[in-house]
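Lab notebook, bench 4. The sequencing result for the construct came back, and we need a structural model before the next group meeting so we can plan mutations. Quick request posted to the team channel:

Model the 3D structure of this chain.
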Amino acid sequence: MRRLMVAGNWKMHGTRASVAELIEGLRNQVLPSGVEVAVFPPCLYASQVIDGLKGKSIAVGAQNSAVEPLQGALTGEISPSQLVDAGCTLVLVGHSERRQIMGEGDELLNRKFAAAQACGLTPVLCVGETLEQREAGKTLEVVGRQLGSIIDELGIGAFVNAVVAYEPVWAIGTGLTASPQQAQEVHAAIRAQLAVENAEVAQGVRLLYGGSVKAANAAELFGMPDIDGGLIGGASLNADEFGAICRAAGN
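Done. Here's the predicted structure in token form:
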């Protein structure tokens, strides 16, 4: 049985003061024991969040990490080993904002995924299509290619310790949400693609949905058979809303 997961991606939001306020709000949330909860703050505040959430069952991850696993001459980057040293347990790989704005392609993301795993971090691989690609009927082709790149380079075994997040680019921060049926269709295709390689691995991988998830629509989305929780953007910056989404997963 896959344990549901709700993860909050804070993106490039926060000051020391607002992060402290958000930590306090999270500490006051009653979270369901059957759901794994995680947050991804900006790296600058990771230590503040890790210290502030001590004793609370909330994992802390990073939004990005370097292509090299260990410390070295790579100015401006943070290595997976440094993230582990700081207390992070997860890292996002391939978020659409990094694919589109930073120009990160599959080859680079394969290296980031492998480097993260080499240091014991769990990569959360983000996949998804643009509105143009969806309207052209290319959703499954695009998502399949993004997923297939990791399978081809690192093998199906790489997904034993990984999470996949399907985030349709057109639904991120727009208020638009894929219907539960649309999301389930893509999640089922992802699981089927993994199952071609190894059915047991496919059954064990948690597949999250991301894209304007709120407390109001979370339960219906998480009720789909292949949706194992959510990667939450804007709503994760409000502790009460995020807590309500976590409780929806628990129900």
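The chain is about 45% helix and 15% strand.
Will bring this to the meeting.
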